[in-house]
Amino acid sequence: MPINWPALAVFVLLFALITVLGFVAVRWRRGDLDLLHEWGLAGSRFGTLITWFLLGGDLYTAYTFIAVPALMFGAGALGFFAVPYTIMVYPFVFVVFPRLWSVARRHGYITAADFVRGRYGNKWLALAVAITGIVATMPYIALQLVGIQVVIAALGIGGGGLAGDLPLVIAFVILAAFTYTSGLRAPAAIAIVKDVLIWVTVIVAIVAIPVQLGGYAKVFAAVPAAKLLLPAPQGPSLGLYSAYATLAFGSALALFLYPHSVTGVLSASNREAISRNAAFLPAYSFLLALIALLGFMALAAGVAKAPQFAPLIRQYGPNASVPALILAMFPSWFAGVAFAAIAIGALVPAAIMSIAASNLWTRNVYREFLRPECSPADEARMAKLVSLIVKFGALVFILGLPLQYAIQLQLLGGVWIIQTLPSVIVGLYTRWFHDRALFLGWLAGIVAGTAMAASQQFKPIYPLHLAGLTIPTYAAFASLVVNFIVVIVLTPIFTASGAERGRDQTETGHYV
């Protein structure tokens, strides 16, 4: 594709703005960035409004603008699972995560693994939670890099060799600069600009595009019937019905276990800010539903058959459907605005993710096992360096896995991170589970979930066969069931055998 100079100029201008904002953020609510708590959590000083933007920037990402519409475009109604799952997750957040904030503030916890270490007194279980968080975050960062890569290619910058790798180089350099210099303050500041751009883009798109296509009725009429509804199950199988349900429920359970979600929660100044945001953030679910429909609009606009978009679609498949739609429907200058919104919407969470992963490594691996005597300044310095290394790991998922849809990156991370639920979420309410049983349950879930995903070429749906019935199931949900079975069976055995439990540093009053 030829370079779209007007769109590129607007894109570069907006990107330059957020670059400057990212560096200026080091002076915002100034703190000692040689302390991990200040660099990685911004001193936990964000109120309700900033937490709103941070969590929105945290959770509504290239996943929202690229991956979900791509699944709607390619697979149809199955992609709409993302909407009910984001609705289900907020009551869960409202009830559970103020408890985590309270106990973390009381004990100075920075990560979920810190909480597990204090709750169960088992450093190996905490290590398992930390490593899981780091590994699960890498494909999620990779998804953000894919989003940036696609929109820059849509601007006409792409191809093979250095030009093809340029989007990843740009993403790495900017992320490295933000995270190393300003810590969590940079993505928090940028998230405000990012949300404004996204809301403007979406509102314009959902009004202007259907008008050009003849209205929503014609949009849905142009979508193949097979993609409008989930197909009815055939034979002894639940078909996509069970796949849809477990994708939604499993994703809801996994979302706030990701390290970047925990980082966003723990950066709040009080637990009320978390509760308020759990009530307000469903507005983003409404936004997500509108964005998901862009996949159907791309089908109605026929972007897959348009010769000018053939190179883009050929290279990135369904992941290029929204950028192609924007180019087809809008003048170049507005395409530049929309592409900047998508790229910044990828940049903000990627920065938070790399910070969260580096917090886990530094606090729960480096200080716990490798250098217990390290100073606070050494701890912060290590976190800054690791935040750079994590991004290289994310590139492995882009280059090494066969992916038809970008959303597979996020769903693959969900298979792993959900295995921390028994230790983290159940641990906020009870210590009945034995820490050794939790470790073995985590191991069983990780092995089962990874094996299920690998057997399907890292696609998230696994055909579970039970009593002659085939139940297509999200591998994260099925493997979590395995995890819980192992924990529930082994806990009484370890307890009856007198196996020693670690010391609990928390008390009931620390959670409220």
What are its keywords?
single chain; 512 residues; mainly alpha; Hydantoin permease; two-stranded antiparallel ribbon; 23 helices; 73% helix; globular
In brief:
By secondary structure, the chain is an all-alpha fold. The chain has a single domain, classed as Hydantoin permease (Orthogonal Bundle), CATH 1.10.4160. The chain has helices spanning 5-24, 36-41, 48-59, 62-75, 82-107, 112-120, 123-154, 161-182, 185-213, 216-222, 225-228, 239-255, 259-266, 271-280, 282-301, 310-316, 321-329, 332-370, 376-400, 407-417, 421-424, 435-455, 475-496, and strands at residues 461-466, 469-474.
What do these coordinates show?
By secondary structure, this protein is mostly helical. The chain has a single domain (5-231, 240-402), classed as Hydantoin permease. It has 23 helices and 2 strands. It has helices at residues 5-24, 36-41, 48-59, 62-75, 82-107, 112-120, 123-154, 161-182, 185-213, 216-222, 225-228, 239-255, 259-266, 271-280, 282-301, 310-316, 321-329, 332-370, 376-400, 407-417, 421-424, 435-455, 475-496; strands at 461-466, 469-474. Strands 1-2 form a two-stranded antiparallel sheet. Helix 12 crosses helix 20 (407-417). The longest helix has 39 residues, at 332-370. The radius of gyration is 22 Å and the shape is globular.
Percent helix among the residues?
over 70%
What is the makeup of the main sheet? 2 strands, antiparallel
Distance between the termini: 57 Å
User: What best-fitting shape do the alpha-carbon axes yield?
Assistant: globular
Overall average residue pLDDT: 89
Low-confidence stretches: none
What is the architecture at the second tier of CATH? Orthogonal Bundle
Broad CATH class: Mainly Alpha
Widest sheet, order of strands: 1-2
Strand content: under 5%
Total domain units: 1
Question: Cα-atom Rg, whole angstroms?
Answer: 22 Å
What structural class is derived from the secondary structure elements? mainly alpha
Total DSSP helices: 23
Order of helices and strands: HHHHHHHHHHHHHHHHHHHHHHEEH
Number of strands: 2
* CATH fold call: Hydantoin permease
